[in-house]
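--- STAGE predict ---
source: upstream dedup step, 1 unique chain passed
mode: sequence only
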Amino acid sequence: MEIINEIKQTVESHPIVLFMKGTPQFPMCGFSQRTAHALKSVGAEFHSVNVLERPDIRANLPRFSNWPTFPQLFINGELIGGCDITLELFEKGDLAQMVRDAQSA
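--- STAGE serialize ---
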């Protein structure tokens, strides 16, 4: 399936990818806003995909990742999770280390 290959290519070609509603500058939901903010707070440089502008990705990403909701954070090609997991990692200090590791890899 072509769109699954595009998603896979995106995840593999960027160390940190956030599939979100809106953009980091203009998030269109609170969960996406909080996730992007946590990433920015730890100095992450990340690629974002606005699933509202890409209904094909929005429809197929849950099949690719086996995760039903947005946002979805991938680090080094691996699904980390959504907003709750990202914020939990942020609060424990683990997100900063994961970002440092991904950006230095």
